[in-house]
Amino acid sequence: MQKIYFKTFGCRSNLYDTQVMISNIKDYEVILSEEGADIIVVNSCTVTNKADREIRSYVRKYATLGKKIVFTGCGVKHLGKSMYDGKFAFSLFSHSHKESINKILSSKERVFLPKDREYKHVDSTLMPSITGRIRAFIKIQEGCNFACSYCIIPSVRGAARSFPREQILAQIELLAKSGVSEVILTGTNIGSYGLDTGDNIAFLIRDIHAIEGIRRIRLGSLEPSQIDKHFLDILHLDKLERHLHIALQHTSPRMLSIMNRKNEYSRDKELFENLYKRGFSIGTDYIVGHHGESEEIFNEALRNLEELFLTHIHPFIYSPRIGTKSAINKERLEHVKGDVAKARLKRIESIVREKNRKFREECKEELDVLIDSKKDSGYSGLDQYFNRVCIDKSLLKDIEKGTWVKVNRYKIEENNIALELSK
Fold this sequence. Notes:
Largest sheet: 6 strands, parallel
Strand content: 15-25%
Helix content: 25-40%
Structural class: alpha/beta
Strand order of the largest sheet: 2-1-3-4-5-6
């Protein structure tokens, strides 16, 4: 039996897509490293030009070493033809064909399926378990209807469409029976769930909350403009993680306009205040160095950022993506030099790091920790506020990953929480 290895680049949606493919493998042995593989399936990302370069280098390296490369994922549109024509990739297929992977791999002829089925496809695979995971990513929707000027993803993932609610619930019930106790709802733009079916992500969360065996529900990135009354009404649910990741991308009204974003800073601030008062830690995505981010605009954004109730941040330095409006820069907006962008990113990280430390110090709640790492020195996991908790081995008897631990005595360290166990 031939051995196959899956190399996944990019986001949580890609991780889920890889699991879908693994679940549809019948005639091959899936292994966990490239070295022993006869075939490498590359599930690609194309969110930045840098991602394209990394993937191109990876494919060429292993093709040169004699591995049979099968190429899929978001990079098919931009990288696929060159990989296929250059014979670095033996076969290639787009997102909507992934459930046919066993047939594609079994073909003695090269397969070239670069186009999706009008971007209407949603997966129907139900996975009985998630390989090597103690928590499970659950894709609830695909595609995005936004048109942010810097983003290529809508053109490679298509318009927003929702997975059937019954299918999502059946998938989670299966995984709960296999021992999964934490699920992370993911997709290209999860706040758009239900727009095409008359449903709403809040109603879906209520149903997931009722599933026996599920102890925590985490959410992927939400858009602030999509948080409605229905969503605010379910924030009291005790299985819902007390952390929300809400993608602002910037805090300057001018930059939000340049980026063609739908959120407005004044409303974002009001929303964050509301969520913070309800006991949530809050994370965000943030882009620095986009065309037009003058010193004046950045300083305004910094002041606004300091006002926000914010505990986590995933900042990016803007990288022009070929095929996007921002990369064309038709308005000839001011270019931000690389060293300036790096300095700005560090300032933003420093501000939010201090906000997080203050939040952890002020938190008086018992921490509910899912252990996801086990080393010689001890254990670590994430609490309900999405903070890393470290436990010295001397404080805890031998336990396995996937164990839940409750903690009410702890001390705050620079980047995590070190603790003594509750009795």
